[in-house]
Design goal:
- The protein is an all-beta fold.
- The chain has one domain.
- It contains no helices and 9 strands.
- The strands form 2 sheets. It has a 5-stranded antiparallel beta sheet, with no helix packed on it. It has a 4-stranded antiparallel beta sheet with strand order 1-2-3-4, with no helix packed on it.
Length: 126
């Protein structure tokens, strides 16, 4: 799953979660950058973040007392094919433009909550 969105003011959110091959096994990882009025917040596997929820329209990342929630709405969906063992058999569902609600909180305080009609969301069933 990946999404990037700019919001009014000086706020930008980019987030990605994936299953990655590493040392002969698969590791589920994530990275997110939330930029709010000149301050960057980063949630990432290498910083202790975990994927609490990941689905067709919802992604939740948690890192300590920080939480990023992404809820993607309906949009024009495109089906893309990706390789599996050399064959183009894996289906990816991609919404290049869709609505999305994003909420970022830390220590119980909501630092950002917004909606965009120009977000992107991609989900691949594992």
């Amino acid at each position: 799953m990946a999404a990037l969105q700019r919001f009014s003011g000086k706020t930008c959110v980019v987030v990605s979660a994936a299953d990655l091959p590493f040392a002969g096994r698969t590791v589920r990882g994530c990275v997110a950058i939330i930029y709010i009025d000149g301050v960057e917040y980063r949630l990432a596997t290498y910083l202790g973040a975990r994927i609490a929820e990941c689905g067709e329209s919802r992604l939740v990342l948690e890192q300590g007392k920080a939480c990023l929630e992404v809820e993607a709405g309906a949009g024009v969906e495109h089906k893309l094919m990706a390789p599996v063992n050399g064959e183009m058999t894996k289906e990816i569902r991609e919404r290049i433009v869709c609505g999305a609600n994003i909420r970022f909180s830390r220590n119980g305080e909501t630092l950002f909550e917004g909606r965009s009609e120009g977000a992107s969301y991609e989900y691949v069933e594992v």
